[in-house]
Specification:
The complex is a heterodimer of chains A (398) and B (83). Chain A is α/β, with parallel strands linked by helices and 398 residues long. Chain A contains 13 helices and twelve strands. Chain A has a seven-stranded mixed β-sheet with strand order 2-8-7-6-5-3-4, with helices on both faces. Chain A has a three-stranded antiparallel β-sheet with strand order 9-10-12. In chain A, strands 1-11 form a two-stranded parallel ribbon. The chains are: A alpha/beta (398), B alpha+beta (83).
């Protein structure tokens, strides 16, 4: 049985070139980059080269990059770091209702510390309305966080427009670009953002490394206090092999992005067209055009997404429900509730994320295997073909 | 401590929210890029700077001009005296 991996939003394989670049930093180049002697300074040089490559991927200056352990840590540092640093100005923050949990739960955590958080609704495609954001900003608002693209539904937000509104009102603007980096072009100057979160695995680097871009005009309270690493903004001896891997992967991603976009968009369109043609009662979620090029997300009526994921995996096809709430906690995804999907339909969420290594043949294999799997699950479903009354959703509130 | 008001500066460093030893490392780096006689302003909320920055200026041979305090931060002024 062949394996068709279409879950690149969850994890990507570490590229061969990336692994090769990393290997010396596990052994002969082991020194601590903070050391002043030559062994340390050589590692420091490599680390700074990696920083320049990561900065180059998003049009930033290397001095504006803080390496973190993950995209989630970058999001925590952005939201809490700005909130703590600006709390004398005000204690109100705004985040969209479809943010990653690392943003949503950071906002919830700040609420416990007497900050006030507004969770901004989105439309049926998952878009934040700029006018609605402008109305939600108050004199005491200090931070707005809206993700660049949503992992679950693929929608790309109008970030530069939202960021400009914030800039006019002296409100710091953060965007979580973990789903976007390596999948669509990002330029921090064109986007006009103050902070932007990245994840290494999004571009073929290993797990355990991420980064936060920050505009130097924005003050950030560190979350990890200690030494001088990352210029005192994130203490702890650096994950040198991970950072070297991130830098190498970022340089490759920058070079290959235009070709990758064309390739994955073509495959994505083939997959979407085939599913909508061959499977009935299915909703294509997210914005039809303003979305990540390799991202296809659906809700299949009368099916549990989790069951579909398992049965596809039995056929060697790897996809995702897109939501930890749905797959681990058996709750309804807050993203799908926020875009107004019926609770029963939201249960059938399945997300395919395509990367450069996928082929047309693989997409055709999915299109061959998926319809009978859906038919089988619907045959087993107690609600297939029945009128489903509206019912209270058990959407995850966190 | 020497308190001053309305001091002009050629360069400014914002070190608010950052702690020891960044309040000494970053001014050191910044002063390397400035000319003799130029004045550096250092903004910080780190209490340790009250003692450290005047001492550090003395050790490094720069002139500690004085400090200003507002509701939120300290502002230290350093004149570069040597390369």
């Amino acid at each position: 049985m062949k394996a068709v991996y279409l879950d690149h939003a969850s994890a990507t394989p570490v590229r061969k070139e990336v692994l090769e670049a990393m290997l010396p930093y596990f052994s002969e180049q082991f020194a601590n980059p903070s050391n002043v002697y030559d062994l340390g300074s050589k590692v420091k040089e490599a680390l700074e080269e990696a920083r320049a490559n990561v900065a180059g991927l998003i049009g930033a200056n290397p001095a504006q990059i803080i390496f973190t352990s993950s995209g989630a840590e970058a999001n925590n540092l952005a939201v809490k770091g700005v909130a703590f640093a600006r709390q004398k100005k005000g204690k109100h923050i705004i985040v969209s209702a479809i943010e990653h949990h690392s943003v949503l739960n950071s906002a919830r955590f700040l609420e416990r510390l007497d900050f006030e958080a507004t969770f901004l609704p989105v439309d049926q495609n998952g878009l934040v309305d700029p006018e609605r954001l402008a109305k939600a900003i108050r004199p005491e608002t200090i931070l707005v966080s809206v993700m660049h693209a949503n992992t679950e539904i693929g929608t790309i937000e109008p970030i530069s427009e939202l960021a400009s509104i914030c800039k006019e009102k002296d409100v710091a603007f953060h965007t979580d670009a973990v789903a976007s980096v390596g999948n669509t072009p990002l330029d921090v100057n064109a986007l006009n953002v103050d902070l932007l979160s990245l994840s290494g695995p999004s571009v073929g680097a290993p797990k355990g490394v991420g980064a936060l871009y920050f505009n130097k005009k924005v003050r950030l309270m560190p979350l990890i206090h200690g030494g001088i690493q990352e210029n005192g903004r994130r203490a702890g001896t650096e994950n040198v092999p991970g950072i070297i891997g991130f830098g190498t992967a970022a340089a490759l991603a920058k070079k290959e992005l235009p070709d990758k976009i064309d390739h994955v968009r073509r495959l994505r369109d083939r997959l979407v067209k085939g599913i909508l043609k061959n499977v009935g009662k299915v909703t294509y979620t997210g914005h039809p055009e303003k979305r990540l090029p390799g991202h296809a997300s659906f809700c299949f009526e009368a099916i549990e997404g989790e069951a579909l994921i398992f049965m596809l995996a039995q056929n060697g096809i790897y996809s995702n429900t897109g939501s930890a709430c749905a797959s681990k906690a058996l709750k309804t995804s807050p993203v799908l509730v926020a875009i107004g999907l019926r609770a029963d339909l939201a249960q059938g969420s399945t997300v395919f994320t395509i990367d450069a290594g996928n082929t047309e043949e693989e997409i055709d294999y999915v299109l061959e295997k998926l319809p009978p799997v859906v038919d089988r699950l619907r045959w087993l479903s107690p609600i297939w073909g029945k009128e489903i009354p509206e019912f209270e959703t058990d959407a995850c509130k966190h | 401590m020497k308190f001053i008001k309305h001091q002009d500066a050629d360069e400014s460093l914002d070190l608010v929210c950052r702690m020891c030893p960044m309040h000494l490392l970053e001014p050191g780096d910044k002063l390397k890029c400035m000319r003799k006689g130029q004045v550096l302003e250092v903004l910080t909320d780190y209490d340790g700077a009250l003692e450290d920055i005047p001492d550090w200026c003395q050790k490094c041979g720069h002139e500690f001009i004085g400090m200003e305090e507002d509701d939120e931060n300290y502002k230290f002024y350093i004149k570069k005296k040597r390369d």
